Amino acid sequence: PVVGIVPILNGCNYFCTFCSTKLVKGKLFSYPMDAIRQDVKEHLKAGCKEIWITSNDTGAYMVEQSGRQKITELLEQVLSIPIDFKLRLGMMNPSNSITILDELIEIYKHPKMFKFLHVPVQSGNNEILKLMNRKYTVENFINVVEAFRKEIPEITISTDVIVGFPSETEEQFNDSLNLIKKIKPDVLNLSRYAARDGTIAAKMKQLQTNKLKERSRKMTGIFRQVSYENNKKWLNWQGKILIDEKGKEDSWIGRNYCYKPVIVKGDFKLGDEINIKITETTTFDLRGELC
């Protein structure tokens, strides 16, 4: 009840060889800016404290209608609504974020924006990215992450990686491992490659299942080390969190300004904003107490 989810487009303007989105949803179609802003206002009037702007690729907003991206213009319109709330921007491909990088970083500095960037890389090897038809390079991805961290050092970086794409060699997989070690993302959405009917990659020679499992385990182990070290930096941090989820037993889950999950115990309710101090960190979350 405190999170308003607002889709801004449907379909996709890419044709990744592993993905069936284009086959299922068709071409990209962006919704009118005024309608999106009105949708956000309705959520806020209903009591929402968080707004999630979502789509298959938020960076592609209005590309098919205007020939250029208008995601930053949309965000300016939404953020101008004179109500107190926090906004989380959904997934944005590197190819669409690097072209408007300076504008994006500036909009992320707005106090209502969660400092949370979801930019999927899928592989740390350029040859595999080409086979995936991803339209960007590993270097493009690194440039996006480093540019954001230069201006907003504490930003939460979320990325996606697929292991075991057809023909992926051990060396190419190691490139993905090394990228995770280099970038040190806060969130990693890890997938074992799975063939989807009708896709180009489904017709390629598939790797053995045990190889996918082995690579998944290896990358999970590396990421857990990275995540634990990232979270340790938040120990003793003090500030506000917004309670947006009920946890186990008498615990609650709130989010700080970087959308970091913070577990607290006490007599709270959804939508409460409280001041806490981080007293413990784990691999996947922070633990706090009232202060």
Distance between the termini: 26 Å
Parts with pLDDT < 50 across at least 5 consecutive residues: none
Kindly state the percentage of residues in helix: 25-40%
Number of helices: 10
Care to count the β-strands?
A: 13
Chain oligomer state? single chain
Which overall shape is indicated by the principal axes computed on the Cα atoms?
globular
Q: Which structural category fits the helices and strands?
A: alpha/beta
Query: Order of helices and strands, N to C?
Result: EEHEHEHHEHHEHHEHEHEEEEE
Strand order of the largest sheet: 9-10-11-13-12
Nearest-integer average pLDDT: 96
Rounded radius of gyration (Å): 20 Å
Strand content: 15-25%
Largest sheet: 5 strands, mixed, barrel
Topology (elements, then pairings):
Blueprint: E1 3-7, E2 9-10, H1 21-25, E3 29-30, H2 33-45, E4 50-54, H3 63-66, H4 71-79, E5 86-89, H5 94-97, H6 101-108, E6 116-118, H7 126-132, H8 138-151, E7 156-163, H9 170-183, E8 187-192, H10 209-232, E9 238-246, E10 251-255, E11 261-265, E12 273-281, E13 286-290
Parallel strand pairs: 1-4, 4-5, 6-7, 7-8, 11-13
Antiparallel strand pairs: 2-3, 9-10, 9-12, 10-11, 12-13
Helix pairs in contact: 9-10
Description:
- With 291 residues, the chain is α/β, with parallel strands linked by helices.
- It is built from ten helices and 13 strands.
- It has a five-stranded mixed barrel with strand order 9-10-11-13-12.
- α9 links the parallel β7 and β8 (187-192).
- The longest helix has 24 residues, at 209-232.
- The two termini are 26 Å apart.
- The mean pLDDT is 96.
